[in-house]
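This section describes the prediction task in plain terms. A model, or a person checking by hand, is given the sequence of a single protein chain and must write out its three-dimensional structure as a string of tokens. No templates, partner chains or ligands are provided. The sample shown here is typical of the held-out split.
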Amino acid sequence: MKRKFMTLGLTALLGTSAVLLPLKSNQASAYEDLEKKKNDVQSKQSKNQTKQEKKKQELSELESKEASLKSEIEKIDGQMTDTNEKLEKKNEEIDKTKKEIEELKAQIQELKEKIEKRNNILKDRVRSIQENGGSNQYIDVLLGAESFGDFISRAGAVSTIVEADNVLIEEQKKDLKLVEEKETKLNQDLQSLEKALKDLEKLKKTLDDQQKKKSKVMKKVKHDKDHAHAELGSLENEAEILKRQDEAIKAEEAYRKKQEAEERRKAQEAASQNSGNSEASSSKPSAPSSSGFIRPAAGTFTSGFGNRSLGNHFGVDIAKRGSGVPIYAAASGTVYNAHYSSSYGNVVFITHNINGQTYQTVYAHMSSIKVHTGQRVEQGQIIGTMGNTGQSYGQHLHFEIHKGLWNNAKSNAVDPADYIPL
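The expected answer:
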């Protein structure tokens, strides 16, 4: 009897082991890739965070540089405004001086006419003196006096004539000097103004060159800043995708744990039932089933994987006319992204774990989405309807399979024709 119980116990133990050993083997296989992908995602998240911090620092430096350049440009603008005002004022002064010169020219012309008249008078006087004997003529006038009173009268007249000649000569000298001084002063003023004008124009050109250089640098800094903003936005988008991928992988991991716990429970119940039977069962439990991928939509295969006229095609296209054409999940998994994209249109991304290998599938250009991010879906579940959204030409489904994680370069994309019937 004792031996019989030992035999039954050993049989139960062997039966249980037969159930659990394959499960552990499958579990290790299933978790190995999930764990690897989870570590890959977390490593990428860490690198992404480092890049974001670096890009934020770069952006901060560019914004600081932009602010500094803006301040310098404003300063140059102020100097330019001041210089333009001075130029306007200097041009007004030059116009005024030129006007004064024109007026002076008229005055000079009058003086020259007076001088010319005086010159003619003096010339006539000299000629008369030469023709009539010079100073002897004055002596004859004095000696011809009939009385002392007449002499005094004649002497006074001679003196007046001589004095008048002297005054005329002095006025001539004075007017000539005045003309020369005025001409010299106005010419000096004009030269000074023109020099100042040239200096201001030179300063304006310098400021204008500085302004152009600063504006050019500012344009580059703004371009770099916009580029940095775009790169930061791209990194933030990548971070969001990585976060969702991480969540989907963890959800798959949790689902598999729950599924395996259920399978262990069922195996233990079966083993317990076998232990109560006098004859041990020699049958082995069935291996975990895996249906792989199914075709995600009905319709005509219109475009394959690889190069084509519009560029490299990372999936296959399936087209069918009519409204409400259903799109199915090609395998069970977790939706890690369901949203609208300018290129993909309405798109759903699903993470799967099949036979220990992590896959991600993409369903693009749908007219409507029937699932949401983070949702667990079963193979064959309707996730949306066929459409023509995003960069699409005609109603169809663009379907991608990535052996591993989806990325912008689509480096893990594989030909869906190798995985689904077409």
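For orientation: The chain has a mean pLDDT of 76.
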